[in-house]
Amino acid sequence: MSTTFTRDLAGEVTFLARELKTPVIAETFATLGDQARDAGWSHEEYLVAVLRRQVASRTANGTRLRIAAAHFPTIKTMEDFTFDHVPAASRDLIAHLATTTFIAKRDNVVLLGPPGTGKAHLAIALGMKAAEASHPVLFDSATGWINRLAAAHAAGCLERELRRLKRYRMLIIDEVGYLPFDTTASALFFQLIASRYETGSVIVTSNLPFSRWGETLGDVIVAAATIDRLIHHAHVIGLDGDSYRTRGHRRPNK
Predict the structure, then answer these.
(1) What does the pLDDT average to over 66-74?
(2) 203 has which bridge partners?
(3) Where in the chain is the domain with CATH 3.40.50.300?
(4) Residue 116 Rama label (left phi>0; alpha psi -120 to 50; beta)
(5) Is residue 4 a contact partner of residue 21, using CB atoms and an 8 Å limit?
(6) 50, 59 Cβ separation under 8 angstroms
(7) Contact status, residue 126 vs residue 72, Cβ threshold 8 Å
(8) Nearby residues of 140 by Cβ (< 8 Å), 6 or more positions away
(9) Which of 50, 91, 104, 159 has the most C-beta neighbours closer than 10 Å?
(10) CATH 3.40.50.300: does it fit domain 71-247?
């Protein structure tokens, strides 16, 4: 600790920082004080520097907590995504979605395409951007969401669970269409989408075009009603091309 601060003054700053729950101020005030004197900072510049350190730390911690709470199966970023197979118009739209402004508008995002084309990667990357922008996010597969809602329904608290989920500004529903739903699951999925209508954003990934959602939901009427609510305020992006998982294993023709 800097010798410029008296023991009593340093102790008081540490005590006040603890009372304010600002540990970074306690950790940095002395070092920054030395820098301030050496560089000839004003009192205001020194105060800004100390507070900026505390805010930066709190922001970083908040982002880490939101990412952990989102339960992403893995960490994916926009910077790691390969746009080679994505049309230019969709690239521009994805760049716009990465600003997360669609969340304030309660818009949805639907990513459609064959397996391995990067749908889950994009969904998680957008979820990461949302967490960095201070939005609570929750991720699960379509089957995981159905199991969660089925358990709530069996316990007689489905409505309470749907209300609880509204605290999340974004829900990510991955892999719609990989496994067919029975009648109960289809109804629960409709209720999940309907509960988010114009109240919160949803990102959905599916390997099926909308014309085939009747197959996975088991009822064309329920499928139509679900799609209607999902895409009313939605950005729909089609992804095509070779699978990420097989692209790297191709060998050139001899």
Answers:
(1) 97
(2) 109, 172
(3) 71-247
(4) left
(5) no
(6) no
(7) no
(8) 71, 148, 172, 173, 174
(9) 50
(10) yes
